[in-house]
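Renewal narrative, Specific Aim 1. Our central claim is that a sequence can be written position by position from structural information alone. The example that follows is taken directly from our test logs and has not been curated for this report. It begins with the structure tokens describing the chain, in the order in which they were read.
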């Protein structure tokens, strides 16, 4: 995959349970030119200053939960930097941001920890943080609905315990956040 692509290739990361329209994907792709030194996404969270998941008011601080901003919803505060990007909503990365051997090593080490299994967004975001690559959430239309024709196995939910264990492990192993 990514190691065979050219240096300036853009890669869209998404959830296999969703069907994305062409404008949705094109929007992510185009935003990489507006933010050439950042990964762009339609949903993300800031780790510093945890906020409640699902709370539509970012001014209501209810630690230790994460407040995820998502384009096309009331939670979206405008285009801004985040710590964590969420693949289910669409993420566009550039090949030049990755040292494939470093990424493989992180994934290998991460897969040994059970709490990382459902936290690939955090592992990806940690890798990008370690590489000093900004993560931006950007404006778009509404997210696509989950297709009834695609398997709905699994869940978009990740437990607070898994989040906290993952973040703690990544913070200490990579000296980030």
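The sequence written for that structure reads:
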């Amino acid at each position: 995959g990514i190691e065979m692509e050219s240096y300036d290739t853009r890669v869209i990361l998404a959830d296999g349970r969703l069907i994305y329209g062409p404008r949705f994907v094109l929007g992510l792709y185009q935003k990489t030119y507006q933010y050439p030194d950042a990964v762009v996404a339609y949903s993300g969270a800031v780790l510093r200053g945890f906020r409640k998941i699902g709370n539509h008011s970012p001014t209501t601080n209810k630690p230790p939960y994460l407040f995820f901003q998502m384009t096309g919803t009331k939670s979206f505060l405008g285009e801004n930097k985040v710590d964590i990007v969420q693949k289910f909503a669409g993420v566009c990365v550039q090949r030049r941001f990755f040292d494939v051997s470093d990424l493989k090593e992180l994934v290998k080490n991460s897969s040994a920890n059970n709490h990382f299994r459902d936290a690939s967004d955090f592992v990806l975001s940690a890798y990008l943080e370690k590489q000093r690559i900004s993560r931006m959430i950007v404006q778009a239309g509404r997210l696509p609905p989950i297709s009834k024709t695609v398997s709905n196995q699994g869940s978009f939910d990740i437990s607070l315990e898994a989040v906290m264990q993952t973040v703690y492990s990544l913070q200490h192993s990579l000296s980030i956040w």
